[in-house]
Design goal:
14 strands, 31% helix, alpha/beta, 7-stranded mixed β-sheet, 5-stranded parallel β-sheet, single chain, 9 helices
Length: 318
């Protein structure tokens, strides 16, 4: 493909490499380092004049450093006369701060959107936004891709009794995502209503729906400290589920998450590689990874060639 350059930030080099390999391209030369006062320094090592530039950087690890690095890389390409700069952000940072849920709360997801626009991004490609209305925080085009087709494929290939399963949402917010998957598999769905006393702590859970003598598959867009999904798994087992799987798009797994998963009754916890999982997998053998690099690569290819991306909302590229 002519006139296209792909650069990878330091947050997830493995994913950047997989995307470039899938497209048959070399990753662009870029050096990211820190000065001794911890300021980020970026050097783009090749010409981007008149090129269609894609910068892959996920919102994980040292989130603030990686976000700053992305903004600097976008700006460096923009002022070096790139014709278009697209930020490929598999996991959008600050996505959970998307509304003013109490007085004086910030809407940080909107702030991040403003920063990306001001730095010079012309287009954003992301995956499974925590709230799809975040797309409306931008005045530039945003393609919010879904992990759903890859999830459906994984369920059919790896859970032999998937026809007798119930898809479960661990909270009311994920009901739409779960009903969509349940409809496409033609199975039942259930919902867990939870009440939080304070952030990252769940107080009480109520299961709405039937999982007795069935395989329960918990589906959510992200798991951070894993308190919710581990509580939910216990609830499902006590309600008569035979096995419990968890499928999550973004496995953040911070704090006590890994020990909670190890102690919980999951058959498997399946995440996509929007966030690097190699280290986590060493400490927890229940974690399995779905590779979504081909979905992002195909989105880049279609965007570059001016084709429709909507095919990817319901199909996994071969």
């Amino acid at each position: 493909m002519p006139n296209i350059k792909i650069f990878g930030g330091s947050s997830h080099p493995d994913l950047s490499q997989k995307i470039a390999d899938r497209l048959g391209l070399e990753l662009g030369k870029v050096v990211t380092k820190k000065f001794s006062n911890q300021e980020t320094c970026v050097e783009i090592g090749e010409s981007v004049r008149g090129e269609d530039v894609y910068i892959v950087q996920s919102g994980c690890g040292e989130i603030n450093d990686n976000l700053m690095e992305l903004l600097i890389m976008i700006n460096a390409c923009k002022i070096a006369s790139a014709s278009r700069v697209t930020a490929v952000i598999p996991c959008y940072p600050y996505a959970r701060q998307d509304k003013k849920d109490k007085s004086r709360a910030p809407i940080s997801a909107k702030l991040v959107a403003n920063m990306l626009s001001v730095s010079g991004a012309d287009h954003i490609i992301t995956m499974d936004l925590h709230a799809s209305q975040i797309q409306g925080f931008f005045d530039i085009p945003v393609d919010n891709l879904y992990a759903e087709p890859a999830v459906l494929k994984w369920i059919k290939e790896n859970i032999s009794e998937w026809k007798n399963c119930t898809i479960v949402s661990p909270d009311a917010g994920g009901a739409k995502r779960v009903t969509s998957i349940a409809d496409r598999l033609n199975v039942d769905f259930a919902l867990i209503h939870k009440e939080r006393k304070k952030a990252n702590e769940v107080d009480r859970m109520v299961l709405v729906g039937d999982v007795k003598d069935r395989v329960a598959i918990l589906v959510d867009d992200m798991a951070d400290t894993c308190g919710t999904i581990c509580h939910a798994a216990d609830k499902l087992i006590s309600a008569g589920a035979t096995k419990v799987y968890a499928i999550l798009t973004h496995g953040i797994f911070s704090g006590p998450a890994i020990s909670r998963i190890n102690n919980a009754c999951f058959e498997a916890v399946v995440v996509t590689n929007t966030i690097p999982q190699e280290e986590k997998m060493k400490h927890c053998n229940k974690i399995q990874v779905i590779d979504i690099s081909m979905i992002l690569a195909e989105a880049i290819r279609r965007t570059h060639n001016g084709e429709s991306v909507s095919y990817l909302f319901s199909h996994v590229p071969l």
